[in-house]
Specification:
Layout: H1 3-9, H2 18-24, H3 31-34, H4 37-40, H5 46-60, H6 63-74, H7 80-105, H8 112-135
Amino acid sequence: MDYNERADLEGPPKSTGPQARSRDSDAPPPPSETRPAAIEGFEFNMPTIVALLYLCSLVFGVTAIAGVVLAYIQRSDAKDWEVSHYQYLITTFWIGFLGIIVGIITLMIVVGIVIIPAAVVLVVVRSIMSIIAAQKREPMPNPGTLFV
């Protein structure tokens, strides 16, 4: 390979030189640059993290305890829309915890076979609803409810 061929390999391609930029300056920006910032990605705010810890507890078991501890700690420093999320998530933890305990106790009379899955589904639905609202930075509509 001689010097001229090596010089062609080094540096930017010829299509991205100053001449190419001057022709493209009249073109509109790519669509990704015109989107609002809220749509660009997933925001890991604290209510979202707590809800994700609840969902992870379905696999790992103990992460819900870390989630409820975070919810209790962060509740005092919460922004206006986050307060309802923490109340909702704390209620979600206790619903799930009591549902699992009652389900385990009632397994002897076969009712627990229905109670345990119902408690799990309720925790999953409430956690997902909290994540959706937290991504929009909206308060939970009825944080004190025991159902959805």
